[in-house]
Amino acid sequence: MAATLVAFRNDSAKAETTFSEDKVIIHELADKQLTQVKAATFVPSVLLVPLGPLSVKKLSPVLPVPSRKNLQVPFTSCADMLAHDGAQNTPLWQLAIEYERARGNFTEEEVIAKMTDIVRILRKSIASGIAGTSYEDRVLHHQSGRFAEMMKAGRLLDGGALNRIILYVTSIMEVKSSMGVIVAAPTAGACAALPGAVIAMSEEMGKDETEMAKAMLAAGLIGVFIATRWTFAAEVGGCQAEGGSAACMAAAALVTLADGTRDQAIAAASMAFQSMLGLICDPIANRVEAPCLGKNVMAASNALSCANMALAGYDPLIPLDEVIDAAKAVSERMPREHRCTSLGGLAVTPTSLEIEKRQPRSRRQSHAPAADAAAHRSR
Questions:
Q1: Residues 17 and 136 in one domain
Q2: What is the pLDDT of residues 107-126, one digit of tens each?
Q3: Do 168 and 215 lie in a common domain?
Q4: For the CA atoms of 162, 168, 169, 170, what is the dihedral angle to 10 degrees?
Q5: Looking at the structure, do residues 39 and 130 belong to the same domain, yes or no?
Q6: What distances in angstroms separate CA 184 from CA 68, 180, 230, 304, 354, one per listed residue?
Q7: C-alpha to C-alpha distance for 71 and 104, rounded to whole angstroms
Q8: For strand 2-9 and strand 23-29, is the pairing parallel, antiparallel, or unpaired?
Q9: What is the pLDDT of residue 363?
Q10: Which of 98, 115, 133, 365 has the CB geometry, 3.0–4.6 Å to 213, for a possible disulfide?
């Protein structure tokens, strides 16, 4: 939302009356008041001048999609979407555009353009990752460049498009770990599976950036269903919330790239998420690098497998909403040691603790998680 901050002499009733159609928050400041007006756009100067404000400050929206009063979206769950669309079997990316138009008050062209811009950011991240990254405080060095060389030389096992997916997933993770520019889709720790799979497969198929954007929109709509019913946070749900969500979203995106149907995309999403239930978050050396890299690769590989299975008519059995609910139920029974606390799993192995001690950040200051992990392991 855009925010207009207006300082008046104390007369809140006038401010509330003047801005009655927007969200108005009044802050009392002795003999003055600060009126905060939240809206899709700034309050026009023509409305402010007659009120004689002491000062006006305009704060631009932080998020690219503005909120507004009485906002309504057509659906927030997969079941709602299916009921809304009925027998039309509208492609998932078009339903995503319908959602985004309602959510952000955009045109279809603006929605496609915004997602295309995101795709271009991601492609730059991939290129910079393969070219090479460096950062002092990380545990994995640049590895994607060597993978690219061996793939080009034909020295890897023939994985077809999967090898390009692995390369792109790896490169994005390396950019993330070197504090480069990424898109957290759905999160920073799981930032690579979805875009790596979509962009790599698109290039293998000769698809352009518009088609990539449509696939990402389809993925985003699946993400809406997950975020509404549950979470993307590993601190809440373990890596099933991050890597599982990424696989789920990527599977729907890949079906969309293949011109699959709405129901095939949903089936792929359901199967991919089912395969990730129970996945824990246990970052080695308390860095979001490993086993996060492998889990991103696994999520992308899973997405590709489930996309092809859905295209071939495999039955997911469990509806997507129920799979999300099941993941939430699993997370509620998952011990805190396995939810991104670095207190369990690989994070507390002797080698992990030793690697953490060697890291620059650990040398500069004592690091509580490492000490907690050592104490926890000794109990």
A1: no
A2: 999 999 999 999 999 999 99
A3: yes
A4: 110
A5: no
A6: 24, 12, 17, 20, 29
A7: 9
A8: unpaired
A9: 47
A10: 115
Q: Is residue 179 part of a domain?
A: yes
Give the per-residue SS3 of the chain. CEEEEEEEECCHHHHHHHCCCCEEEEEEECCEEEEEEEECCCCCHHHHHHHCCCEEEEECCCCCCCCCCCCCCCCCCHHHHHHHHHHHCCCHHHHHHHHHHHHHCCCHHHHHHHHHHHHHHHHHHHHHHHHCCCCCCCCCCCCHHHHHHHHHCCCCCCCCHHHHHHHHHHHHHHHHHCCCCCCCCCCCCCCCHHHHHHHHHHHHHCCCHHHHHHHHHHHHHHHHHHHHHCCCCHHHHCHHHHHHHHHHHHHHHHHHHCCCCHHHHHHHHHHHHHCCCCCCECCHHHCCCCCHHHHHHHHHHHHHHHHHHHHCCCCCCCCHHHHHHHHHHHHHCCCHHHECCCCCHHHHCHHHHHHHHHCHHHHHCCCHHHHHHHHHHHC
Same domain, 306 and 197: yes
Q: Does a structural domain hold residue 160?
A: yes
Of all residues in the chain, the percent with pLDDT exceeding 90 is 76
What are the contacts of 361-364 at 24+ separation with CB within 8 A?
Answer: 361/137
Do 176 and 257 lie in one domain? The reply is yes
Task: Looking at the structure, tell me whether residues 188 and 289 fall in a common domain.
Answer: yes
CATH number at residue 32: 3.30.70
Q: Answer whether residue 337 shows pLDDT above 60.
A: yes
Q: Give yes or no for residue 133 having a pLDDT over 70.
A: yes
Q: What does the alpha-carbon distance between residue 19 and residue 69 come to, in Å, rounded to a whole number?
A: 12
Which residue segment(s) compose the domain that 23 sits in? 2-59
Specify the range with the lowest mean pLDDT, choosing from 1-15, 92-106, 322-336, 359-373.
359-373
* Residue 66 domain flag: no
- The answer to whether residues 115 and 180 belong to one domain is yes
CATH code of residue 182: 1.10.4100
Number of domains in the chain: 2
Per-residue b or e along 198-218, where b marks 16 or more CB atoms closer than 10 Å to that residue's CB: bbbbbbeeebebebbbbbbbb
Is residue 371 in some structural domain? no
